[in-house]
């Protein structure tokens, strides 16, 4: 049991998975911040124009 735990700690594949997870988390954080900053501008310029051009049924 103890040797399996040591092998797990020394395995470098887990480190690369953690690094990829951190990169994905940073990209997600940047996307959330960008949506927060530019969200209102995109809504007023694109979304509202497109919804107003669709006739009411």
UniProtKB/TrEMBL annotation:
Keywords: Membrane, Transmembrane, Transmembrane helix. It comes from the Bacteria. InterPro entries: Flp_Fap. Pfam families: Flp_Fap (PF04964). The chain crosses the membrane at residues 20-42. The keyword Membrane applies. This is Flp pilus assembly protein, pilin Flp. It comes from Eubacterium uniforme. The lineage of its organism: Bacteria, Bacillati, Bacillota, Clostridia, Eubacteriales.
